[in-house]
Amino acid sequence: MTRLPLEDEFADVLKKAQRGTGVSIDALARATGLDASEINDWANGRGHPGDDEARAMAVPLRLDPSKFADAAATRWHPDGIELPDVRHHPQSPHPSNGYVFFLTGTMRAALVDPAGIPANLLRVLREGAYHLEYILITHKHADHCDATGAIAKAFPDAKIVMHQADVAAIGSLAEKALRVKDGEELPFGGDAQVRMLHTPGHTDGSSSYLFHSTVFTGDTLFAGSVGGAYGDASTYEDILNSVKTKLFTLPDDTVLMPGHGPPSRIGWEKEHNPFF
Ligand SMILES: [Fe+2]
Q1: Taking the domain 86-272, which CATH number applies?
Q2: Whole-model pTM?
Q3: Ranges assigned E (strand) in the chain
């Protein structure tokens, strides 16, 4: 597996925290005594602050000072993770991640986020000769669901699973979608289930799906960052709250498979993600 770079560079983390907290560059400069033009450079990817400067900025931005300083110095990247029952597939032309997971010893499979060129997804599904039970959609953005129609056509028995608040994005297929609620468990053969966790903030209907000890988080939680807050009703506070109450309550060794960037583990995110 190739090592994907972190989804968000230091400048992205800085800008997301600024947008989320409403702290402008001038306000940051006033609060820290740092030079506004220097902060502006860092926010635009030109250079990065030293440890003490990053720690000072973290306070008004409500980030963790040590983890933010580590992000500035690019001191952390998650170790590679490969799982026997999960296949990752790029969703080109989008820069997002999709996944197929399956129940070991069976052909029972579920696909997370049908997006990108349908032939690429169909190749993965047909190579494994999988019986596709579920098409699980994490949220409404096109780079996570624009191939839903093509996959549903190829696998008409697969159930499309999505949260009510985002379901309009799949057009007429919304009628047959299973609109799942927080905590709902979908049977997946034998004793296995897929549990939906409603994690609003990136969008109102953003959903994470837990299978065994792997959680697929869409654009809610990335290795070292979080998604942007683009909800209609939900906010930056909601995304932080979703992570704290729904994802960080999972066991530390739970593998995180995000919608962008490399996989991680819940425990690693608690240790390294500057938003927490
Ligand atoms: Fe998104």
Answers
A1: 3.60.15.10
A2: 0.97
A3: 86-90, 97-102, 108-112, 131-136, 159-162, 178-179, 185-187, 193-198, 207-211, 214-218, 221-222, 225-226, 255-258, 264-265
